[in-house]
Amino acid sequence: MRRTDELAVGTEATVVVEPPGxxxxxxxxxxxxxxxxxxxxxxxxxxxVASAVLPGCALFLLGQGVSKAALQAWQTVxxxxxxxxxxxxxxxxxxxxxxxxxxxxxxxxxxxxxRPALAVxxxxxxxxxxxxxxxxxVPVANSLIGRGVAPAAAFSFLLSAPAINPVVLTATAIAxxxxxxxxxxxxxxxxxxxxxxxxxxLWLGREEWLRPAVRHTGHQPGHSRWTEFRRAFQHDFLQAxxxxxVGAMAAxxxxxxxxxxxxxxxxxxxxxxxxFLAALAIILAVCSEADAFVASSLTGFSxxxxxxxxxxxxxxxxxxxxxxxxxxxxxxxxxFSAATTVVAVLxxxxxxxxxx
Length: 356
Known about the structure:
By secondary structure, this protein is mainly alpha-helical. The protein is built from 17 helices and no strands.
């Protein structure tokens, strides 16, 4: 009996007890990896037609109670912003999709210095040569953190990439013809803001504020790179194009509907004009490839105030706050967005005061 009991005890010692649902979790994980990406719904042409027809019908009905001159001015401003910005939006989303599909993520970790304090400005400067919209920068930063990149460097890249990439700077030069200092001011103010925010995270950031839910970005083995490029381009362009149209409509409404006396109240004060356009950039949530054209249409405001609009917008807006809250947690999004707004406004004022 003693021998039998010892064998029983030994057998029990080798039994591995799995938590309930562990097998299902593994199966679900494999299924999630192997599951194909969702395709467009079959009735997507109807959605496209509805998105083109319904706003026009609504504008027609609203236009019956608006003066013809005001309606024509609204249409002119709205179409001008969309037509000017669309080529840059196409180019920016195409380059972003190409980087997502063809550039390995290990490139980022190899180029960054080991010391986080030095990696922050390097990651910020990397945004100059790596174009991408602000919607894509959040999952990319999340993936970099999951692959061992210091959070401070990932956040610096998150802020700089959509603000100072070549597509955005070229669009800014075209939106402000004959004003190269505006392009330089945007570059410097955005770079300084990204670096300061990275260093602030090193100094004051806490691990409990950051709860990244790592999601895969880039190429997946076994999948077609061209298919990944097409899907990334399609997703980014449709999402950013929608925000572009909404932003253009809001900018046109702002230019036509807001009384001149209200604009004079804000534009006449240097600080109020900067704060007003910074808040407007957060609310409008215009894509970074298009915000320069919206800023150039706000002719009643000072160059420094319009610079603040272009620096704050790609770093803090309503859609970015929502993306950050869903990816890193609400505690992080609330603190990071508030601090970024303050730093971006101060950097815009300092750089604009010197250059513009």
